[in-house]
Amino acid sequence: MLKIYKAMSHYNYLIKKTKAIAYIALISSLITGCGGVVKVQQKNIHKHFKGEGYENQMTGLVVIDPENNDAIVNINGSQYFIPASNTKIFTLFTALELLPEKMPLFRYQKKGIDSILISGMGNPTPFHPFFKDSSLVSALTQYTHVGIVANKLLDFPYGPGWAWEDYDTYYAPERAALPLYGNVFNVIKNDSVSIQEPSLFASFVKKKDDEKQFYRSAEKNIFYLPEKETLSLEIPYKTSDSLTAILLGNLLKKEIFILPEFTDKTDIAYGISTDSVLERMMEVSDNFLAEQLLLSAAEFTLDSMQVSSIQKYILKGSLKDLAQQPRWVDGSGLSRYNLFTPLSITQVLHKMYLKYPWDKLIHFFPAGGEKGTLNNWFKGEQKPYIYAKTGSLGNTYCLSGFLITKNNKRLIFSYMNNHFTKPISQIKQEMEMVLEAIRDQY
Questions:
Q1: pTM (2 decimals)?
Q2: How far apart are CA 215 and CA 357, in angstroms?
Q3: CA distances from 92 to 98, 133, 274, 294 (A)
Q4: Does the N-terminal or the C-terminal CB of the chain have fewer CB atoms within 10 Å?
Q5: Contact status, residue 41 vs residue 55, Cβ threshold 8 Å
Q6: Which letter does DSSP use for residue 253 in this model?
Q7: pLDDT digits (tens, 9 = 90+) for 343-361
């Protein structure tokens, strides 16, 4: 056993030594010294990306100094890439620009003293598994008669280009005007099935006969669970106005009626802090929150619950000066139809950097080695040096955000990789070495 331990220790030592040598070689290739000044050389980085291992993939890197807007590095900055969840940076910007301090909860019109008619505003938090927000029920419990306006969502429940086989996975709930429970059915399965929320679906659970069978029927709210497997699941359910009325009625313990439209002007009720929703969206890369935030911004700003309407609004307004206008089709980045350039992403980050306090801004982003989707990567020596949004799909990994150098200088970057076939861990290691070189030498 001692021999095995020593052999393994020597092996781990060699791995660390190899990585250290590779890092030193990379730094040597990326920097130059002149008169005691050491700086990152763009031409050397360009040469690095033309080297072995990069022939069959697309890579882009833009690094800017936000104080003077100078481009320190611009490699394929104008090239369009599939951004994956880097799309959420645009969603964050839109929400910060357009949504109020507290999330719009619903539009309403009172009828007498005991009746109220409401319509959803896309707010994703009511009884969400993470937020457990009960403000919707608190606001409505005093009314004897409660109604909801139907057909407010102008989009399809799924975004353009979403993978069809994702419909039963936790990261792809349907979009809705008035979401409840995060639009997912929470189930804990051990020796017996423990139904969580909503309990309405308890009678719709059946035994899963085939391991390839989906956890939910494609067209109905019928759920399939394995008989012996222990698991905890969030299974998206199919939404509809009639189902929303039933679920809300069960919460309020009263029957909910449905009407086609409001008959008079409306007011708005508000819920929990918008920042708290943005933080959660960015930290764990929550697709559902991202989609609903765009719907909420559209409804609040334009009285139109349609993702494309708010995208056009912000692109023709606050983002009209982007170097390259994106193809932007959803809020989350689930779609491969999205196309963004590294340069345009850094521009959006720069706009936020100039407008919002630093401590507020970096709080939204995962922190390297400490928080969220960067918990295990891009770790700093004493504290995080990377605050950035990840974006991953098959053969895609992107990282965009803020880098703090050893000289405590703040930089903005967007590092995008598409069409690679090597393991994503190798892509991350390569990115880590490049970003550490910039951190240590700029």
A1: 0.90
A2: 44
A3: 10, 21, 11, 9
A4: N
A5: no
A6: T
A7: 999 999 999 999 999 999 9
